Amino acid sequence: MDTGAILMLLYVFVLACFAGYQLISKVPPTLHTPLMSGANAISGITILGAMLAARVGPGAPFNISTILGAIAVALATINVVGGFMVTDRMMGMFKSKK
Amino acid sequence: MDFIAATEPMHLNHLLANFGYLVSVVMFMLAIMRMGRVKTARSGNFLAAAAMLLAVVSSFVEMGQIEPWYIVGGLVVGGAVGAIMAKKVQMTQMPEMVALLNGFGGLASTFVGLATFFSMGGSGTLGQMMREGGWFGGMNLVLTLIVGSVTFTGSVIAFLKLSEKMSGKPILLPGRHVLNGILLLVPLVLGVGAVWFVQGVPVIAAVLILIVLLTFVLGVTIVIPIGGGDMPVVISLLNSYSGIAAALAGFTINEPVLVVSGSLVGASGLILTQIMCKAMNRSLANVMFGGFGAEAPTGGGGGGEYVGVKSSDPESVAMILADAGNIVIVPGYGMAVAQAQHAVREMANILEEKGANIRYAVHPVAGRMPGHMNVLLAEANVPYEQLFEMDQINDDFRNVDVVLVIGANDTVNPSAKTDKSSPLYGMPVMNVEEARTVFTMKRSLGSGFAQVKNTLFECQNNYMVYGDARKTLEEIIKALKED
Predict the structure, then answer these.
(1) Hey, CA dihedral for B446, B451, B455, B456, is it positive or negative?
(2) How many domains are contained in chain B?
(3) C or N: which end of chain A has fewer Cβ atoms within 10 Å?
(4) Is B304 part of a structural domain of the chain?
(5) Boundary-marking domain end, from B266, B296, B326
(6) B206-255: per-residue pLDDT in tens?
(7) Given an 8 Å threshold on Cβ–Cβ distance, is A82 in contact with B82?
């Protein structure tokens, strides 16, 4: 990864931060808890890094990092699956009666 | 993976995978947008889950010919545990559940960082070993470990405090600011050492593990001085951290999807934290470093005995409610603890049949998380149209016949408006004392989380109804039915 690539990732980072700011600044308090829970599930995206570490194949022999990676996959999956299901339960309750 | 480094030729599976990543990033953004509106919230969450699935599938496509069994094992175990946890949890326990899940996310990032290191091998310093990014990648790896570990133990402490497995009271260590400073500085210095100066896998491994252990301690020492009432802010902040940890992991392995999704969560978490602090009229620094609620207030109207407090009983409350036309219910954490939301709804049904107009007034920081009360009332099938935010209803309390305060305290304390010596001074509160009659259901005259005397209890038109909120409500319901 050369300087150009680092800079490109920094651009991505800054723009995404800005998008996150814009997306969330007008949210009714009702949705704060479910939204936090949903965002928390999205932060489980670290699962992709975990999968990369847990793979066994060309250029990635079985070693201690495979085990660490598999644990990371399990932890991130708890975060993702638990997070989305809990959020769905909460958001499913906001039904309009009239 | 290297869609940025143009030096390698692009294979078809890389192209496909990166297209999948791109689509999933767009889906994440749309999902967060939809989750911000009540009508589209649920579909937004579903979209986010679909985006995650697409990202995972794309990752499999990118990796191509591999033995996936360790990955599949992790997915199956984690998926089962997560699903069981999500099914079993009670609605009243949502805040601590989110805290715990967040902790798992943070720990996952720590493990990704460690695994990335152990997969490299080679010789020299950490900076020289990094396949991606040299010293930049190395420093990112160190930061991933630090942020991930702090998020993990911090979230676990928040979980313990919220679930009352540990006292919600702030625990103040002597010299804690200095201690926290050292616990942050030492891992950073160790990290710099690993990236530029220390050589060889075993030594660097030891340094990295030491960094993880020290920042585990840091997560604990940062969160234990913070009182239970401020936990919502802490969870929101830790949620933001777990996003940042994911983004840092993305820098380490040069994966734009992680950078985008992680920073989306990081930024949105910070905004949410800010919104919460504003609702409490506190600054973030004050929450994090204040040890708020630790010292009993000594100022003028702060502490002291209650004078002239009147009390009432469920039968009398029922009698007055039966004749009231305009009723507002103000729920607080006490309602969540007593699991009283269904009883509230049942009572409201009876009163509506008698022709009363029922509204619910929700303070932005009522409960242990913003929106906590809304979730509980929604669980009890309270129509969304009857829920009012503080700003919508605050000027209307003077036209209200009866206000029922159910387990709320600091959010209805009038001294926040008048008493400059009160720690609550300046926090927006509900003007419940302007109503004709106020009934406050509470277990005792004990203070709320802010440990401040509530002058509402001494108001002429306020009556305390002591006891467990659910039992009190059930007795009111019984009396109303006999009526």
Answers:
(1) negative
(2) 3
(3) C
(4) no
(5) B296
(6) 999 999 999 999 999 999 888 766 777 888 899 999 999 999 989 888 88
(7) yes
pLDDT of res. B307: 81
Environment class of B323 (CB within 10 Å of its CB; exposed 0-12, middle 13-18, buried 19+): exposed
* Residues B16 and B138 both lie in one domain: no
Out of B88, B112, B147, pick the residue that ends a domain: B88
How many Cα atoms occupy the beta-carbon half-sphere of B196 within 13 Å? 7
Return the closest-CA partner of residue B234 out of B291, B178, B167: B291
Q: Residue B128's pLDDT band (boundaries 50, 70, 90)?
A: confident
Is residue B401 flagged as an active site residue? no
User: What distance in Å separates residue A65's CA from the closest CA in chain B?
Assistant: 4
State the DSSP string of B126-181: HHHH-SSSHHHHHHHHHHHHHHHHHHHHHHHHHHHHHTTSS--S----TTHHHHHH
> Do B385 and B418 belong to one domain?
yes
Q: B428: helix, coil or strand?
A: coil
- The single residue of B2, B391, B410, B483 carrying the catalytic annotation is B410
Q: Specify the pTM.
A: 0.82
Cα maximum dimension of chain A: 60
C-alpha pair distances (Å), B326 with each of B52, B320, B358, B401, B403 = 47, 11, 6, 5, 9
The length of chain B in residues reads 483
Nearest by CB to B112, which of A49, A85, A94?
Answer: A49
Q: Are B367 and A80 in contact (CB under 8 A)?
A: no
Q: Is residue B308 part of a domain?
A: no
Which of B153, B95, B297 has the alpha carbon at shortest distance from A90?
A: B95
Torsion of CA B236, B238, B242, B245, to 10 degrees: 130
The rounded distance, in Å, linking the Cα atoms of B248 and B140 is 6
pLDDT digits (tens, 9 = 90+) for B25-46: 999 999 988 988 888 889 999 9
Query: B445 lies in which domain range?
Result: 314-482
Helix-, strand-, coil-residue percentages of chain A, each rounded to 5: 80, 5, 20
User: Is B271 found in the same domain as B132?
Assistant: yes
Q: Is B408:B340 a contact under the CB 8 Å cutoff? A: no
* Residue in B255, B264, B271 to test binding to A, most A beta-carbons within 10 Å: B264
B307: amino acid identity, one letter: V
- Collapse the DSSP code of B132 into the 3-class scheme (helix H, G, I; strand E, B; otherwise coil) and give the result: coil
Residue B178 lies in a domain: yes
Q: Which residues, other chains included, contact B203 with Cβ-Cβ below 8 Å and sequence gap of 6+?
A: none
Same domain, residue pair B414 and B318? yes
Residue B84 identity (one-letter amino acid):
I
The rounded distance, in Å, linking the Cα atoms of B110 and B269 is: 20
Residue B83 shares a structural domain with residue B152: no
Asked if B99 and B189 sit in the same domain, the reply is yes
Residues in CB range of B295: below 8 A, 6 or more apart: none
